[in-house]
Request: fold
Amino acid sequence: MNTQQCIQQLIAEHPVVLFMKGTPQFPMCGFSGRAVQILKACGAKRIHTVDVLRDEAIRQGVKEFSNWPTIPQLYVNGEFIGGVDIMAEMAQSGELRQLFSAQEDT
Reply:
């Protein structure tokens, strides 16, 4: 399985996937820490995180996969949402919370 297939499989298997630097308990950059805070504040459950610092192929591959240059990156129900700035905007507007409440209804 190549890197792109691996990323696709992760996104398909988990309703919420956050590619980040570090872990939710020990984020290795401020943006990743902020992304975790936003997700928790918006009621996200069962967040599957991928520490891109553990695998350089995933770190570069996810940027190519999404055509998005920065990490963290959020996927919900197989759909690319964006980075921490977009997550913050969606959290402020209530859109992100709606995504997660709709997810619990299914």
